[in-house]
């Protein structure tokens, strides 16, 4: 598989949709650092920050802060930087 952040993001979106879930690319205007994807299926909701599967992608300080804010109020936020991690969240959403 191609190792770019965009390819990994497309893989997640495609596979969540194939399993009957809902996936959206998020553009949170005025909220720098908000996670990239909204994923939902069978009553579960996950926000995902996608990083390059090359291992070179790092969270920016604003991303870390936003993830901490969201998790502090009970939001399931995941940082995914591998196809294995993508498959884990896709399976989690579909396995209810």
Shape: globular
Largest sheet: 4 strands, mixed
How much strand? 15-25%
Strand order of the largest sheet: 1-2-3-4
Termini separation comes to 28 Å
CATH topology: Trna Endonuclease, Chain: A, domain 1
Output the structural class: alpha+beta
Total DSSP helices: 3
The domain count comes to 1
Helix content: 25-40%
Low-confidence stretches: none
Arithmetic mean of pLDDT: 93
* β-strand number: 4
Instruction: Compute the CA-based radius of gyration.
Output: 13 Å
Q: How is the secondary structure organized here?
A:
Elements (H helix, E strand, L loop, with lengths): L4 H14 L3 E4 L11 E5 L2 E7 L10 H12 L4 E4 L2 H12 L2
Parallel strand pairs: 3-4
Antiparallel strand pairs: 1-2, 2-3
Helix pairs in contact: 1-3
A few lines on this structure:
The protein has 96 residues and is an alpha+beta fold. Helix content is 40%, strand content 21%. The chain has one domain (5-94): Trna Endonuclease, Chain: A, domain 1 (3-Layer(aba) Sandwich).
